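Recall the central idea of this unit: under ordinary conditions, the amino acid sequence of a chain determines the structure it adopts. In this exercise we apply that idea directly, starting from the sequence alone.
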Amino acid sequence: MVLACLFSLATGVVGATPAHAVPTAWTDRVQPSSAAGQQACADFVFIGVRGSGESPGYGPTVTRVRDGLASRWTKGTVRQLWLEYPASDPHTLANVPMQSLLLDQPMPTTEYFTSAETGAKNLATVLADSANRCPAERTILAGYSQGAQVITSALDAVPQAPSRLAAAILIGNPSHYPGQSVRELSGSASQNAIGLGAMLALLREQARRGGETNRDQAVRNLIQTTINLYEGKIDTAAIRAAMVGQQAEIPPGAYQATYSVCQSGDLVCDAGPSMAQVMLQNTTLDSEISRTRPIHSGYTPQVLEATLAQASVAIAELPPLAVPAPSSSASAPDDGRHPNGQEPTPVRTTTVDRQWGLVGVAVGSALPLLVVAYLMGHRRGRGRKMSDVTESSAEESAEVADPTPK
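Accordingly, the structure predicted from this sequence is:
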C-alpha cells in the first residue's frame, strides 16, 4: 500500500470564549485547531490542512499557499489555525481485505477511515465555531492531498460555509472530478482528470448498480466501469451522484471561491493515465507511484501563481460580511453553472458520516490487481492488452447468469 504515503487528513477541537487582543494581519502566531476558541475573532480565519506524512503545522505545500496570500495581502486581520488530526497510518487499511473495502455493504470499519471521519467532523466544528462565535469573520481554507479531501467534505457538511467562504484552495485533491464546483486557474491537468477518491467512489457505486447483490455481477460491473474510464467515457452525472452519496460534493454556492489545482499526471488527482497503464500491464502501480511522486509533491509557488493571484484579488474585493450571516445564502449558487457548462448539484445540508473518498488510499493500489486477477484466473494467459480484457469480460458475462430480478 505504498500509495498511502501520498495522503493525509486533519482534526481539531474548538474551545472556550476568546480573551486575547485582536490579531494583526497574518500574525506569525499559528495555532493548532484546539486553540481556536481561545483566539480573538478577526476579519478572516485561515485554516490549513497538511498532507500525509508532513509534520504538525501546515506542511510545506499549505505554507506556500499561506505565504503567497500573505505577500499579496491588503485586506484586514487574519487569525491562523492548522488542523490537528490523529493521522492514522493509511497502511492500516491493509488489515481489511481489499475486496471487502470495495464490495462489502456497508464498508468495514477501519482505523484509517475512523481517523478520516474524525478529521472531517472536526474541521466542520471549527467552521461552525467561526460562524457562531465570530459572525463577521470570513473563512480561508487551504488543503493539500488528503487535506483537500477533508475540506471538500467539510464544505459539504456545513450549510453556512459557502456564504462565509473567502477562498478554498484545494491542491492535489483525490476528490477531484470533471464538473466539480471548483475554479481551475492553475495546474496542467485536463478537464477530464479524475482523482483516485472520485474514481473509486464511482467504482464502488457502480459495483452495486441496480441493487446487485451477487459478487460475480458486482465484479463484472467494476470491470466494465474501469474499461469505460480507460476509454475516456466519463459519466460526470454518475460520478457526481457517487460523490453526493458519500457526502463529498462541494456545494455550487461555494464555486466562485473554491479553487482546485491539479497537475497532469499527478496520480492522486489525475489518476486515469497511470491507472490505464497499470491495467494494460505496461507498468506496475509501485512504479507509477514512484514516477508520479515528484509531480504530487511539486506544487511550487510558480504552479500556484495564477490561483493565488486571483484568490487575492477576489478576497480584496469582498464586502464586509453581513451580521448575522443570512442562513439562506448557503444554497444560492453564484451563476448556476459549472465552468464546463454542467448543471451543479443542489446544496445538501448533511452531516459527515463516512469518508468514502479515502478508500483511494488502499483500494486504489489494489483495484487493478483485483480486476486483472479476476480475469486472468479464467483460462487466459497474462500479458494481454485492454482489448483482450474487454473480450474476456464479455465472454464471462455470457457464462455466468445474471441473478438480478428483472
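Residues 277 and 283 are 6 Å apart (CA to CA).
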